[in-house]
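Review form for a predicted model. The reviewer records the input and the model, then writes brief findings.
Reviewer: anonymous (R2)
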Amino acid sequence: MGERSVPPASPVQINGPCGFDERTGLSYRPIAWRDGRVYMIDQRFIPTDLVILEHDDYREVIDSIRSMVVRGAPAIGVAAAMGIALGALRRAGLEEAEFHAAVDRICDETAQARPTAVSLSVVVERMRRVARWEGAGGAREKAEALVREAEEISDDQVEIDRAIGRHGASLIESPGTIVTHCNTGALATGGIGTAIGVIATAFQQGNVKSVYADETRPYLQGARLTAWELIQQEIPCTLITDSMAGSLMARGKIDHVIVGADRIAANGDTANKIGTYPLAVLAKEHGIPFYVAAPLDTIDPNCPSGADIPIEERDPEEVTRFMGRQVAPRGCGAEYPAFDVTPAGNISAIITEKGNIEKPTTEVIKPYLGK
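Model under review:
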């Protein structure tokens, strides 16, 4: 696994596989496939350093998903697809039965990387089906088919993001100020982003004055990533701590809340980065629209409600330590549920690539799942 560090700048131009993305027009591409290797921007170092990792083993990709080199449900899916393709390509010389067994193991290992994001399991099963497609030929042909499928998954996400951006922007009818939580831009999806894709599209239409970015403790995705991405696109942004949004709402300084999602239950209950639920409660209290922007495959029909969504519990040291430094007294306990669940009743609309699902319920959502 190789890496290189690029001096930080604003805005930045990244060279190599993670450089300018013709598909999106952005100056960076968080995940890229080139010459049988997977390249990733290491999101743990933004905004102070730009480090690009080169992976030539699927286990390195899994480790990058687990350790949050790459994060965001759609981007995790893209990374997983490329990791599986990488593992398959390295095993293309096996007999077909051995190849199938090896790809199944790779898929199983990849599916366990992070439990809450449903995109991961959806992509893993899609790749598994391609590996078992009888019309693909032998192991070499199937490995090459998996590479094409991974690239298609990446390209599909770009189109999904664009559609989400268009539908979501239709809800922002006049210039206003938006608050968002966690990171939902290209770094989180590989396209133009979900919530940030909506914000960027509405900004281009003249309907976004500025954006408040929650810092998103304890990993600071908002401070490190969202603010960085907004600056790259020259969208005015202001960083706030997670506890400041209520005060700003009470003072009439926020017009909309737009967030992403890692998994949405069949009834519309939504799991997103920890801290989203209180933001939704505050928005409801102040009569502010609260929107969730996510691809349709984020909706899990096998989860009847939010109570059925598995919530990832991360290492408590990620709360008591930051960037290798102890920030709490030793001996103090900590908890880190990485996600919380916002009830559907707090959500004004779920913005998807097929349209806006307003006032989501099981009955309202069901027709969209058949599209």
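Findings: Residues 2-162 form a domain with the Four Helix Bundle (Hemerythrin (Met), subunit A) fold (CATH 1.20.120.420).
Further findings: The chain has a mean pLDDT of 94.
Recommendation: see findings above.
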